[in-house]
Amino acid sequence: RDELRIVGDQLGAPTPARLIADVTACVLAGLKNRSIVDIPAEQQGIFHLTTAGFTSWHGFAEAILQFSDDLQERQVRLLSIPSHDYPTPAQRPQNSRLDCTRLQQTFGLHLPNWQNALRLTLDTQ
């Protein structure tokens, strides 16, 4: 298509599976050879994991076009639309950003921004 209509009012942090796997491996490596009873309470529980920063689906699509050599050659117009113009069977939240502070502070991690994670994902395709 020459024009893509993409939701522009839902915010989140696009997070590739590779980042989730890498961070999980780092955390588990730090807990290696420890019994569950030896793991401090602050290192247990639920931790949020996403890339740093946030964007809309429209912003994500713009970045994909910008970073992808194959797609840059195509003249595709992206049109930002409100969620109500793109009905889906599942209702989506306007803001699905997660606070990853606990994960970063507990395990001394620095999470990459979503743009760098996207570049890495596109470069490895």
TrEMBL record:
Task: Please give the function described in this protein's UniProt entry.
Answer: Catalyzes the reduction of dTDP-6-deoxy-L-lyxo-4-hexulose to yield dTDP-L-rhamnose.
Keyword Manganese attached: no
Name the InterPro entries on file: dTDP_dehydrorham_reduct, NAD(P)-bd_dom_sf, RmlD-like-bd
Pfam families documented for this protein: RmlD_sub_bind (PF04321)
Cellular component per GO?
cytosol
User: What SUPFAM superfamilies does the database record attribute to this sequence?
Assistant: NAD(P)-binding Rossmann-fold domains
Family in the record: Belongs to the dTDP-4-dehydrorhamnose reductase family.
UniProt protein name? dTDP-4-dehydrorhamnose reductase
EC id: 1.1.1.133
One GO MF term attached to the UniProt entry: dTDP-4-dehydrorhamnose reductase activity
Q: In which pathway does it act?
A: Carbohydrate biosynthesis; dTDP-L-rhamnose biosynthesis
Which reaction is this enzyme known to catalyze? dTDP-beta-L-rhamnose + NADP(+) = dTDP-4-dehydro-beta-L-rhamnose + NADPH + H(+)
* PANTHER family (alphabetical): DTDP-4-DEHYDRORHAMNOSE REDUCTASE, METHIONINE ADENOSYLTRANSFERASE 2 SUBUNIT BETA
Domain RmlD-like substrate binding, by residue range, is: 1-123
Sorted UniProt keywords: NADP, Oxidoreductase
Q: What class of enzyme is it?
A: oxidoreductase
Species of provenance:
Candidatus Desulfatifera sulfidica
Give the GO biological process terms.
dTDP-rhamnose biosynthetic process
